[in-house]
């Protein structure tokens, strides 16, 4: 393992044990004329990466959470949690500007809580991104199942998703991934927009009874007071949909001008708040309690297939970004303060590809741990569309 960032104890009040980074060791990636120059990311590309990291699989579950909380409670949760997560991203940036050696939130934890804090947060950081990437595998395999009319076992589609995510996440620089995120965001945004328009064109929700009277189930306040567990689960689903701002911190190290981070965050999170609020409220207003989860199935099977086909690349790139961020953390952790970090050496490439492979293996393990029974239930691939 490479050496850790240099730390020196700054004068603190008696009893304090906090550390601060030496000024000469501010940036992880320095200028390089004969190696890999990582600091090439413009702020619009950074903003698009933030948009794609956030506007991912989480948006598909918000309408269901709105049904549990009601239109008022759901709307307040969307606006409040998104604003809170935007604020925390700015707080992390300000901390990082004071301690420029921080490549990730694990480095921040090192300054605040020492070695123990760094190791604990580092494990949680990798684990959190692995779980998010695993959810992308589930979303991609669901999309492929839908598009193929369940012609193959879900496990095989999950393997296709895993290979696609692993291949794209092995791209070394965020600047090279950046242009793909533009395509990916347009992909998933268009897919969700198709569903939003689709539900407004139906006489009744696709999942509602085809004939006779029915109750829509759209309420400003929930008709039945939710239990604490149900309410917390619903609002936490909304919180999680915009909460991965910890993954924004490693992006700063690859920006041309780190000072543009706030601009990129405010643009991205403001759009996220707008999209989450409007899209989720419209879907809930037209589908009520008949909203599908994931919400791409809310406008019926035909629109569902179109939406999954259009949004497939966006779902794949969601998993790519999560796994790339986790692999980049391990890569920097291993090669930091060595000549191999920014040189095209055998150690550089073997470490990077090894980190990518290790993260993707863990993503696969996380998927299998929740889907192990599916290997023995391929008969479930009927034409019944599971929401």
UniProtKB/TrEMBL annotation:
Membrane topology of this protein: Multi-pass membrane protein
Pfam families, sorted: Aa_trans (PF01490)
GO annotation, cellular component aspect: membrane
TM annotation in the entry: 120-141, 147-165, 177-199, 228-252, 264-286, 306-331
GO molecular function terms listed in the Swiss-Prot or TrEMBL record: L-amino acid transmembrane transporter activity
UniProt-listed InterPro entries: AA_transpt_TM
UniProt subcellular location: Membrane
Keyword Ligase: no
Keyword vocabulary terms for this entry: Membrane, Transmembrane, Transmembrane helix
Domain Amino acid transporter transmembrane stretches: 40-345
KW Transmembrane helix (keyword) present: yes
Family: Belongs to the amino acid/polyamine transporter 2 family.
Protein name: Amino acid transporter transmembrane domain-containing protein
